[in-house]
Structure formats: structure tokens, C-alpha cells
Give the backbone structure.
Amino acid sequence: MYNNAGKRKKVKLSEMIQYPNGKKDVWQPKLHSASQRGMNLEKDLNTTNAYYLGQDIAVIHKKPTPVQIVHVDYPRREAAKITEAYFKVPSTTDYNGIYKGRYIDFEAKECQAKTSFPLKMLFAHQITHLKSVVRHGGIAFLVVRFTSMEVTFLADAEKVALFNENGGRASIPYSWFLEHAYPIDGSYAKPVDYLKVVDKIYLQ
Amino acid sequence: MYNNAGKRKKVKLSEMIQYPNGKKDVWQPKLHSASQRGMNLEKDLNTTNAYYLGQDIAVIHKKPTPVQIVHVDYPRREAAKITEAYFKVPSTTDYNGIYKGRYIDFEAKECQAKTSFPLKMLFAHQITHLKSVVRHGGIAFLVVRFTSMEVTFLADAEKVALFNENGGRASIPYSWFLEHAYPIDGSYAKPVDYLKVVDKIYLQ
């Protein structure tokens, strides 16, 4: 954010941690954390989920990428080779599992844009899915990383759905995340420690 | 079971519905249900889950088949074609989701053998996974269909794990399912109505 200030619109630190209503208890993200810089979000989430699993904190996995398999060669029975397949639209979200007895479900997106998160990065049925999860008593959210800011947010699914339904806007401004979402802290062992945020906003 | 009796060892109906301890309140499976005969378990579960989703009863999906993608052709940007990929060992189970606020996780297997379910059909880490789910407060089980019997059972994951740990046996006999598991009834709209069993054995 600062070391690259000349390359993009500068965002003041004060803009990031001041909240208009003064009610939110939000900790400051590690903007220059070595663990986050240059690694992608999926890798960081996999590392984090492996940590949660290894420490028996939670059982949360990324779902496999959905693929439509058209042709498979069987040179040997034990070595089937898929020779024609296509990527399919995922019917749900990427991550789900269980934490402290609660069903957890979220979608993760890396956003290159600096000033807003384009809603076209989500499918309408993914938002529908997340709303269903909430209706059935689960915890549903988005994890959005603004790569240029080196900040990762947890945004509650219902708030995102509300923005999507009321706004008529094509993207969610960065300022909305500062006001309505929660920065996710991390460390080497758990680069995106989103369950700390889940504890704070859903389980207290 | 009866119309094909000559082709295999005959199992008496009385053997299927009598329970030694007399405690279980188990309903009789529809042995000749047209909806089950000739359809495979995955298709039946997908139909059932679509019904649950459509009626807003539960949000439970099959996970995509995990595939290791090695090579992708991009003739056009919007039409990526996977030309080399391999099936991967699934890290968890096939199905999970949420029902009445509870995390649900299960593996489904169709069993061709008539007298037992071979444990080699499950990976050790899948049993470990199901035990973790239970430890974190979720509901975990197997759905096993004996195709020759036209009967589908729900078997609690902890009971299966216990059998696996104590038995030193390579397969679970059919008689074990009659005593320790629960037949799953169905209808055209929900061919494998496993949530009825979940209600009965986990949520009462």
C-alpha cells in the first residue's frame, strides 16, 4: 500500500481503521505480512484449513473443481486417463465444513480491482446458496482479498446479498468492505485465520 | 429378492425385519420399489437432494469428483478444454451440507456383494474424516445399497468405525446391517429419503 503508493490511488490508513459508527471492534490487518504477499488466496486458505484440521480445530475443505468428463482412456485398469473434459459452473461455493458444531460455508475471491469488488465474480445461484445456508442455521460468508491492498476481508453473506438486492450496482466499493466487512489477520501457520473472525462475529 | 430368488442365496423376509433386541423401531424397506430398481445410488441421491433443496428442507450436495488437471487447451478463452487429467483419491466423503442447523456428512456406496460390504470400498482417511465430523458435533454416516437385495441402509459412522477397529475383518456382514443399521425408505420424488432416518436416529 505504501511501498507501491506511486502506482495507484493512495488509501490513507486512517480511512481503513476508522468506522463511522464507532461501534465495530475491528483489529488492524497486517498490510505487509510476508505470509500474504505474493501467495494466492486459495493456497493460503488451504494452508489455513490444513492447520485447523491438524490441530483438530475445524474440518473445512475446499471442494474439487467441477469438471464435465467427456472421454476417458483406460490403457490399464489402474491408470484411467481423462482425455476430454470441460470446466463446469460450480453449483455451490468452494469451501464448507464444520466448526464448533456449526456448518460453515463460504466462497473465496481474489480481486485485482483496487476500488471495488465486481459482483460478476459471483454467480447469482452462489448468493442464493449462501442465503439458504443461513436460513438453515449455518454460517455463510465471502472471503475477498484485494490483492493490490494486501488485505483480506470476511463479508457476511446476508450483508452481501442485501447490497446485491438493494443496490442495483455492478460492484461493491472498497469503502463498503471497510465499513461492513472484517479484515482477516494471519500468521505463517494460518495465513488467513478466518475462524478468529467467525468467533468474533458469529459465535459470541 | 423373490423374483430372482433362484439366482442367489435366499434371504427370508423375517430375517430382515426381526431385530434381536426388539428395541429398534425400523420400518420395512420397499424391496421392489420401481423407483429404486435399476437406478444407481448416486442418481437416486441426487434426485433426493434436489427434492430436499427444492422444498427448502436441507442444503446437501454431492461434491465434484476430484481430478488432477495436467493439461488444458485454450482454443478460445471461453472454451477451455482439458486434454489430460487423472482421477484423484477423494480427501473426504462425497456428500455434505446442512439440515435443521446440523452439519451432515456421508459417503455412499453401492455394494454388489450379497452377504457383506467390503471395507476396502472405504479409504481409511474417509473413516477418520467421518469420526472428526462427529467429534466436532456433526452427523456422519454411510449410505450403503446392497444392489442384489434392493435395500439401502444408513449406517452410523461411529458404529462402522468401531466395527472396523475391533473386528479385524475385511468386510461387514449383511447381518450386521440388519442389526445395527437402518433401512432407508423412498418414493418417486425422494428415492433415498435418508433424512427421515436422520430425524429418527439423530434428532429425536
The mean pLDDT of chain A is 84.
